[in-house]
Write a structure and sequence with these properties.
Layout lengths: L1 E2 L46 H24 L7 H4 L8 E13 L5 E10 L8 E5 L13 E3 L8 E9 L13 E11 L2 E9 L4 H4 L1 H4 L9 E4 L25 H7 L3 E9 L2 E6 L2 E6 H14 L5 E10 L4 H15 L8 H4 L3 H7 L3 E5 L3 H5 L10 E3 L5 H11 L10 E3 L6 H6 L5 H19 L6 E4 L7 H14 L8 E2 L1
Parallel strand pairs: 1-18, 9-10, 9-17, 10-13, 13-14, 15-16, 16-17
Antiparallel strand pairs: 2-3, 3-6, 4-5, 4-7, 7-8, 10-11, 11-12
Length: 493
């Protein structure tokens, strides 16, 4: 049984590309390489010229670098049907996440969160180490780790560092060539024996990059990473009582797209002639128009990505059908040329057909006016597996029972977040969705990677940078596109 895919080789990134506060690294002790202290008496360096010593050292570093790159490049990856039946050893995998809880804030009030490193697929040995870098060690053999962890001391396969990252308030770069965001991690079996590497990264074109195996699949047959209450995002820290339950995300819809999300759960309120994103009855300061234009801008930069906008709820101001018509007209004005029609031709279209049609936005509109005003433009509501559970154990039990049954037909969504109710909010007004996301996100990664990947379709989460669903989805879809279903039982994405 396999676990993992090849590590991301995020070459070419430099720290200068990113706007991180360098003061955040105060107090972190770098692990030196080569190790400090006397070297074994292999050579009498006093008898060798300085230039010769320099050449020897450079040669040693270069050989270590070649060995490192060879290990990274040879890491197992499913590229053909033969790989689907490979009974080789389980592959170790390391990945980076971002804790949803605020650690501090910038002078402008932008939240900083702590970087997390995770590993899976291995029983750690005493000599194993996980390293975090600020430069890509696969491209720079002189890169030194800013933090090293002994995984044997953390049986949960997880370590929350003191490295703080501010939220990206600007638009991230849409670049498949330079996807890394300034942090790399490696898993080292023994000194110099790197089993795998990764970086904290974006996936702005993962669907286009999967053209060789995604083209014959349907949207309902792949795993689609998404966000819950996608438009309820806020860069700062919610300080007022109960406000901590208002926001479910911390980066803009544009940046959610750049990171790799492709499903967006939208709730809309109508106030004084303007449409705003709501979280239930709580209004945010984001207009629907601004969100739609973020989607439009992303599509001009990454035109083969297929996006699902789920207009799920209209909790305020929709007093008559005319308000719905006004909102639908707005959607058509901004995204009309991109919309996937709800017709017989497209209802069961493959992803390849959608690419050829140059239609790549599916809008679901959960209101009867959908069929009255624009019957061919908008899709009906997307069914949801929503547990409405207040603890991780309750949500785990809900999904266990749900996935024992056959998967629904067509598009459907697993709402993989803890849902507070009135009682829990009143009892814990200082808790909030960030804390609930921190409690559930690591579980969500494990559940959908190890248990439910074969059946899951859309997976929507809160504060998604705290889980690995985007990477799990990409690996799952590669398996589904290359391996026959009869081989799935022997594979873990």
């Amino acid at each position: 049984m396999r676990s993992g895919t090849p590590s991301s080789n995020c070459g070419g990134c430099s720290v200068s590309n990113f706007c991180f506060n360098q003061q955040q690294f105060d107090g972190i002790t770098a692990v030196h390489w080569p190790p400090q202290g006397p070297s074994p008496a292999l050579l009498d360096l006093s008898e060798i010229s300085k230039s010769s010593v320099k050449m020897l050292l450079l040669g040693f570093v270069f050989m270590m670098y070649l060995s490192f790159v060879e290990i990274i490049q040879s890491h197992h990856f499913i590229t053909s049907k033969e790989d689907c039946y490979d009974d080789g050893p389980v592959a170790v995998r390391v990945f980076l996440t971002v804790c949803s809880l605020p650690a501090s804030a910038t002078a402008k009030g932008v939240v900083r969160r702590r970087l997390e490193v995770n590993w899976v697929g291995i029983q750690p040995a005493r000599t194993d180490r996980v390293h975090i870098y600020r430069r890509d060690p696969t491209q720079d053999p002189t890169a030194k780790p800013i933090l090293s962890v002994e995984p044997i001391k953390y049986p949960g396969g997880y370590y929350k560092s003191d490295i703080e990252l501010p939220i990206h308030t600007h638009h991230l770069r849409v670049s498949a060539e330079y996807p890394c965001l300034g942090y790399w991690a490696t898993y080292e079996r023994k000194k110099g024996d790197v089993a795998t590497s990764t970086c904290l990264r974006t996936h702005p074109s993962w669907m286009a990059e999967g053209g060789d195996h995604l083209g014959d699949l349907h949207l309902s047959g792949i795993m689609i990473p998404g966000s819950h209450d996608s438009g309820s995002f806020f860069f700062g820290e919610e300080r007022a009582p109960f406000s901590k339950y208002k926001y479910a995300q911390e980066v803009s819809v544009f940046n959610q797209l750049v990171y790799g999300l492709r499903y967006f759960d939208l709730r809309v309120g109508h106030y004084g002639g303007e449409f705003y994103i709501n979280h239930n009855f709580l209004r945010t300061h984001h207009t629907v128009e601004s969100v739609l234009y973020q989607v439009q801008k992303f599509l001009t930069l990454s035109p083969k990505e297929i996006i699902i906008l789920d207009f799920h709820n209209f909790p305020h101001g929709f007093r008559n059908d005319g308000v719905h018509l006004k909102l639908q007209n707005l959607i058509m004005t901004v995204l009309g040329p991109f919309l996937i029609p709800f017709t017989d031709e497209f209802e069961n279209a493959t992803i390849g057909k959608l690419w050829r049609s140059e239609r790549n936005v599916l809008v679901s509109y959960d209101n009867p006016t959908r069929a009255a005003f624009f019957p061919d433009a908008f899709w009906p509501s997307i069914p949801r597996a929503w547990g409405n559970k207040q603890t991780a154990e309750e949500l785990k039990a809900y999904f266990r029972e749900f996935f024992e049954n056959p998967a629904p037909q067509g598009l459907w969504a697993s709402m993989a977040e803890i849902t507070p109710n009135a009682r829990s909010i009143l009892l814990h007004p200082e808790s909030g969705l960030r804390k609930l996301a921190e409690e559930i996100n690591k579980n969500v990664t494990r559940w959908f990677r190890d248990l439910y990947w074969q059946k899951a379709n859309i997976v929507a989460t809160d504060y998604f940078l705290g889980n690995d669903i985007i990477e799990v989805a990409i690996r799952t879809n590669r398996i589904k596109g290359i391996c026959p279903e009869s081989a799935w039982a022997g594979i873990t994405p």
